[in-house]
Amino acid sequence: MDSKQPIYIAGHRGMVGSAVVRKLESLGSTDLLCRTSKELDLRNQAETREFFAAEKPSTVIFAAAKVGGIHANNTYPAEFIYDNLMMAANTIHSAYLAGTQRFLFLGSTCIYPRMAEQPMQEDCLLTSPLEPTNEAYALAKISGLKMCQYYEKQYGVMFHSAMPTNLYGPGDNYHPKNSHVLPAFIRRFHEAKLAGQPEVVIWGTGTPRREFLHVDDLAEAVVHLLQLDNAPSWVNVGTGKDIAIRELAELVAEIVGYEGNIVQDPSQPDGTPVKRTDISLIESTGWSPKVGLREGIKQTYECFLLESGNKIVREK
Is 137 one of the catalytic residues? Predict the structure, then answer.
């Protein structure tokens, strides 16, 4: 990856994209191509092709996505599959037509089967059914991964993918219903502390286990993968460590300073029982995570407070 050549970051205003921009700028990248969704609708094939034909980026980092937690995925599956499929297909094909030299597609470990053997290795993809609550999103991401794989196979281009685990960090989405579990906990416990609420109710049994990666660690991994001459076709990016949802809630409550009770609502869905990645493949290339979970949540809460004070908290 040449920091002086045009690099297009799709989804630069999201949590992932903004972290990648920060990292690239810190390394001296001077020609970053960034467009908001209003300036460039990647779901629109004509708009996307025109952009690539005009700008001809040498490298593309695809961090654009319609994302959300279990409630959002379960409620809006048609939007999740359509938006994510169209963005991926249009961007990958337009990049190929424009002569893009390197394309890194960012997906999610939700692509793996619901009952995948733990920790999840890359080769468990498509070996059994997906988790129903996020199947639409997962199918779109699998399609993007496979599209990159097939373009590399047929056309010889360096189009490859990375599958990050659950992400968190500065710029996360704190929508009261549609956010992921960790930012949802931060907001809920913070507001409960301010209101003096005696208890906070969290969904499910609290027993599912999840893995969490700070978004700055992912940005480091993105840059690392783009510098490899022979990057894996797709690779997990995570910590290899998980935590029960109940333990996570207790950790967030402690960091936020909420001292009330935490109550489970087992009538709500749990999702996949366990999700932990095997990161031996990316570790073999020389990358490993650096930010610990407690440290990362504390930093993220401080960012949330700053964003709240400046009235710039993301809620969509």
Answer: yes
3-state secondary structure of 89: helix
pLDDT lower than 50: segments of the chain? none
Spatial neighbors of 110 by CB under 8 A, at least 6 apart, are 130, 131, 134, 137, 138, 141, 272, 275
Active-site residue (options: 8, 137, 151, 174): 137
Q: Specify the amino acid at residue 4.
A: K
The CATH superfamily assigned to 7-309 is: NAD(P)-binding Rossmann-like Domain (3.40.50.720)
d(CA 52, CA 40): 11
Q: Give the start-to-end residue ranges of the domains of the chain.
A: 7-309
Position 74 scores a pLDDT of 84
Peptide bond into 119 cis (omega under 30): yes
Q: What is the pLDDT of residue 5?
A: 83
- pLDDT score at 138: 96
